[in-house]
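Data card: per-record layout.
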Amino acid sequence: MIAIYPGSFDPITLGHLDLIQRGSRLFERVIVAVLRNPNKMPLFSVEQRLDQIRLSTQHLPNVEVDSFDGLTVNYAQMQQAQVLIRGLRAVSDFEVELQMAHTNKTLSTQIETVFLATSNEYSFLSSSVVKEIARFGGSIDHLVPPHIALDIYQCYNQKSPMLNPISTEAMPPLKNMSVEREA
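The structure for this 183-residue chain is written out next.
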């Protein structure tokens, strides 16, 4: 069975990769399909995103990477796919995704949508969050693969914050301070 995992993936995150890996265990073939959306101003070109995803998924032999424009259902039919994979992080995602799944069903009754719940550690993660953190100089090394973090830092003309991390630990107690107690 062939599954399509569509999205903009600008950039692909560890949350996306978690879903791809899990989907690759469920389906014979998974096509990660980058949508060419003329209404968005992406950080990376479609070609850059395709390369980033290919490098990130090269260890998964049944995962392919492609791009498309137009309706996802039409692309899925062209690929002879039976399933669309969609990730759910929160209830708000479910409302939007369910509406999209019902709409897609009106376009093709042959294609099913399979929802995968995001792993807990990625429940907050989105491409928008990654870009926002990086734009303001924060570390994204724990949110995306290393090669993608470097690409993002280069887009914002920054060095990796991990090279010069900001400490967020509590200050240690001061030495030589005596505390008097009332008896």
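Known properties of this structure: The longest strand covers residues 29-35. The longest helix spans residues 91-107.

See the next section for split statistics.
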